[in-house]
Amino acid sequence: MAAFLARESCPAGAVGCPAGAGRFARMDATAADGYPRPDDGTPATGDAANLAAVDDEASCYVPKGLPGWSARYMSHLFGKEGSR
């Protein structure tokens, strides 16, 4: 499996592949939408009230690369909050 994944022709892309006990799998990093912190001087202690949004598995997605992740992560700055 390692030799196949190391080939330039491998279609798998940048994924983690745990291996052991005769089994191979795919492991992804996910990201949640979280919440945009207001730029109004709100103290960091207010972030605790938004922990549910940060940890919301319903908004999790698997980014398709750094450009896609960063565009979605920064979308609140450009009026596209929640765009997928």
Overall description:
This protein is 20% helix and 5% strand. The chain is mostly helical and 84 residues long. It has one domain (2-6, 13-77). The chain has a two-stranded antiparallel ribbon. A hairpin with a 2-residue loop joins strand 1 and strand 2. The mean pLDDT is 80.
Quick description:
With 84 residues, the chain is mainly α. It has three helices and two strands, in the order H-E-E-H-H. The chain has one domain (2-6, 13-77).
Low-confidence stretches: none
| Number of domain units | 1
Strand order of the largest sheet: 1-2
Overall 3D geometry? elongated
Please give the share of residues in helix. 10-25%
Q: How can the largest sheet be summarized?
A: 2 strands, antiparallel
Estimated radius of gyration: 18 Å
Secondary-structure element order, as H and E?
Answer: HEEHH
Total beta strands: 2
Number of helices: 3
Quaternary structure state of the chains depicted: single chain
